[in-house]
Amino acid sequence: MKQLKTYVTLAATLPLIALAAPASAEPIKNIVLVHGAWVDGSGWKPVYEILTKEGFNVTMAQEPETSFADDVAATKRVLDLQNGPTLLVGHSYGGSIITEAGVHPNVTALVYVAAHAPDVGEDEGTLGKKTPSVLAKTEGAIKKTPDGYTYLNPVDFPKLFAPDMPKGQAEFEARSQVLAAAEVFTTPLTAAAWKTKPSWAIVAGNDQIINPDLERWYYERAKSRTIEIKGASHSVYESHPRQVADVIIRAAREAEQEASTAKK
User: Signal peptide position in this chain (predicted)?
Assistant: First the structure.
């Protein structure tokens, strides 16, 4: 797959410069954070704490991971509760969820954090096979229960999912996994919100779960404003919360400004 030729570097975009929204724009104060497979919304806590201190109304969607349709419905349920424009953020498999759920009228823009971003008719499982990750090449790392639910081998979890996290925390997450129905990875999307709504994205440079080349390809196709955090693992939202939060804040400010300009 064609790689991005140019990146907007962290040095060029951060630290964030706050942009005052014109009076005609309705401020984007709502942010919904969507987690990925095998984990839950608690991993967003470091990012949540930064965003709330900046004055945002932040909500974590908790997906059951029982089916793609269930997870999209759980996210839309949270979006229904938002009062006003909302920034929708997804990590990993959560990227597929926000791509489908992001057509919701409350959603103004999208942020992909080391996440999948399929098109209509595509699924992340098939795309992942075309650009395999270290996970895909690690025999026995993905386990499956007799009733079709998947999880990462707890022994492999720290080194694949969270190698830049404290060992104890990574081991705890390995033992507190939310098992995900295998079908969530192979269900084709019926909507692609990145086609009609602006998006921002973060590539995790040392991602072992999703090949960084696949992330780059996704975001180039979606015309996302993209940065790469060198050396970051798939757990970039936990290991680099300040950088991730800064991109989210930047996305909210820029989307707000662009919505105002479009009204003129």
Answer: 1-25
